[in-house]
Amino acid sequence: MLGLIVTLIIVGLIAGALARLLVPGPQPMSIVATIVLGIVGSFIGGFLGYLIFGKDGSDGMLQPAGLIGSIIGAVIALLIWTQVGQNRGVRS
């Protein structure tokens, strides 16, 4: 159980950091927010991978395709987050 939590944190940090590098513009986020972004991205990437390819965690948790899916999911989550943040700051 502890190994799973540590793996989630490490993969979340890597996926979140790479997503922040790939998405242009400022993202004022702490390291904890970056880890959470990566973990959310992992869930999004896993869900999209399951919808597209029909594979799940029983086929293997830590695979290169899963890491790439985590990064893609984190980019999607970051784009949504930046759009919500921009719309929240503008009042009409």
Structure overview:
With 92 residues, the chain is mainly α. It has one domain. Helices cover 76% and strands 0% of the residues. It is built from 3 helices and no strands. It is globular, with a radius of gyration of 14 Å. The mean pLDDT is 81. Pfam families: Transgly_assoc (PF04226). It is a multi-pass membrane protein. Belongs to the UPF0410 family. Its main location: membrane.
Provide a compact summary of the structure.
The protein has helices spanning 2-22, 31-53, 64-89.
Number of domains: 1
SSE pattern, N- to C-terminal? HHH
How many individual β-strands?
0
- Please count the helical segments: 3
Strand % is under 5%
Unreliably modeled segments: none
Structural class: mainly alpha
Radius of gyration: 14 Å
Helix content: over 70%
Transmembrane segments: 29-53, 65-84
Family: Belongs to the UPF0410 family.
Membrane topology: Multi-pass membrane protein
Keywords: Cell membrane, Membrane, Transmembrane, Transmembrane helix
What are the salient characteristics of this protein?
92 residues, globular, mainly alpha
Topology:
Layout: H1 2-22, H2 31-53, H3 64-89
Helix pairs in contact: 1-2, 1-3, 2-3
